[in-house]
Design a protein that fits this description.
Oligomer: homodimer
CATH topology of the largest domain in chain A: Phosphoribosyl-aminoimidazole Synthetase, Chain A, domain 2
Helix content of chain A: 25-40%
Largest interface: A-B, 73 and 73 residues
Strand order of the largest sheet of chain A: 7-9-6-10-8-11-12
Order of helices and strands of chain A: HEEHEHHEEEHHHHEHEHHEHEEE
CATH superfamily of the largest domain in chain A: PurM-like C-terminal domain
CATH class of the largest domain in chain A: Alpha Beta
Structural class of chain A: alpha+beta
Number of helices of chain A: 12
Distance between the termini of chain A: 32 Å
């Protein structure tokens, strides 16, 4: 353990800085200055990753802490199909936190940074009892794009990208060696990879939104149930989803049995998936189907006085899944 | 104490939201969308306020916690003379934190919000062991403005706004009733006001920068010594300041004696003052003098191989004051 001086640490972190052409000043000022351009709108989002809540250092190496924090923040930009421009890092660390761990967190940003041509353009370091990262991400979208979680319309189809459930499954098995031993290694790798190395759907959504218009969208950060519920409440609509339509890796059925958790809970309640759920009208949905994206129609927005998310289960029974997911204040 | 649901809390916080004309979407989405305009550059800054580090709830009411956090964040915009546009609130609170205290923090934003026509346009709430606020502020400046802490030039004059030392003095006396009793009440009020209700120099610097060009600037958040040292290192110059020129309220001399701390330590080491220190060339300095702003010339940028901040004391001796101030990781 070595003692860190904030300013000297910032000097070291500068090696991770490669200026974006739209950033006017260099790393090191308290403010970041960005050139505006008239055909675009800017988008911002802030995302927090806190030790003991979003990660435990004993099960997650600091490189992965950095990666997952940035993936989560960028996922908010993916929701509107934004092109990331840069990000700002607010780091909270204990007083005697090893300097090398700070650099490991920054190293964790590199893979996503390279993939999306972005780097941190500033930040703060504050002392705290535990590690915390608050990332502000900045991106841009075409000026005419209007997507909001409040724009879902009755009659819309509800669609989700990729597959769901692997992250919650990973959290359930990560310390249970007797279960891990029973899962074929290629399946185990695939389950753990989604937990350790989530990848925000930036390029996927940019491409998709260049071809299709959607009404409302959200990323699956707290669980499909909880996140769709946000669309439902913001749009004052009911969303109906069908258990039989939910996308998941087929082997999760066996793993769910091993864990002793109903499969639909793993799928509907899995947070930090960073898949995107969105709604779009029938016509745009038909267009989307022809384009062959890796997306699954899971339900629809309905005319109903009830605001929330109803799931029709495989046995025909129904259940409200609004609270099936992670509420940060309930834990 | 009541149990809080994150989403319901966000509903309540919406009452503090009045949309800025350049914000395209409403409060409630994960991303904030801002219209770009071509003649301006955007500026961002992130600032953290952590319980047990920047404040203790027993000596600072939550309204003031909110006010001081926003004042500190806006102060970074004042450094470059920016017009604030909006801000994003990342709030960390303990699980059983009273909802009313969250609203008190938000109420604390209102006075500054009204003064600068801004309101929060989004945010996050995360559970934590203690209260923490990370504010991202967004503003804009004319496109041709280039000020950076790395642009100080040898020959520049060093100037500071307002007066220094009251905040450190307030922290020294806040719990010492025997000293407070001895200070005349109008002086005591003035000392405490700067601590409880700091005011960022937004309008002051906007006006000043519309008339004068400056090279480097920084706000006094960690202490004049520590903050000027950042200009010195970023610009690779030496800064010389003179104790006899430092601006402070005359009565601080008596108070310093009562506390038993050398006056210059109160003045040079006082953080969270949110005054602005800046450097400008001789010609611009002459212009500034004629304009009658409440600023004080305290020294100059010199040709010297030494990078840092040297203070010439009243007795003619010299001392390096780079470390006289608050380093968040040293405490």
């Amino acid at each position: 353990m070595i003692h860190i001086r904030e300013d000297l640490l910032i000097e070291k972190i500068k090696e991770f800085y490669k200026p974006h052409p739209r950033i006017v000043n260099g790393f090191g000022d308290d403010t970041i200055i960005l050139k505006e351009i008239p055909t675009q709108n800017l988008v911002f989002s802030v995302d927090a990753t806190i030790e003991g809540r979003h990660f435990y250092p004993d099960i997650l190496p600091y490189e992965q802490v950095g990666h997952r924090a940035l993936a989560g923040a960028l996922s908010d930009l993916a929701v509107v199909g934004a092109t990331p421009l840069t990000f700002i890092v607010n780091l909270e660390i204990p007083k005697r936190f090893p300097e090398n761990n700070v650099l490991r967190i920054y190293r964790g940003f590199e893979e996503l940074g390279k993939a999306f041509c972005i780097s941190p353009s500033g930040g703060n370091i504050t002392a705290s009892e535990r590690v915390g990262l608050v990332l502000t991400v900045i991106g841009e979208i075409p000026r005419d794009r209007t997507i909001s979680r409040s724009h879902a319309e009755p009659g819309d189809k509800v669609v989700v990208t990729g597959d769901l459930g692997r992250v919650r499954t990973a959290l359930n098995i990560i310390n249970r060696h007797e279960i891990k031993k029973k899962i074929p290694s290629d399946q185990l790798d695939e389950i753990l990879e989604k937990f350790y190395k989530p990848w925000p759907k930036i390029n996927f959504m940019k491409k998709l939104l260049s071809e299709v218009n959607i009404n409302a969208s959200i990323d699956i950060s707290d669980g499909l149930g909880a996140d769709l519920s946000r669309i439902a409440r913001a749009s004052q609509v009911e969303i109906v989803i069908y258990e039989r339509k939910l996308p998941f890796k087929p082997y999760l059925r066996d793993v769910a049995r091993m864990i002793g958790t109903p499969l639909f809970q793993l799928v509907v309640g899995s947070g930090e998936e960073y898949e995107i759920a969105f709604t779009l009208n029938e016509e745009e949905f038909e267009k989307l189907k022809r384009l062959g994206y890796d997306v699954t129609e899971i339900g629809e927005v309905t005319h109903s006085p009830h605001v929330g998310v109803r799931m029709v289960k495989e046995d025909g029974s129904e259940v409200y899944v609004d609270n099936m997911g992670y509420d940060h204040l309930k834990g």
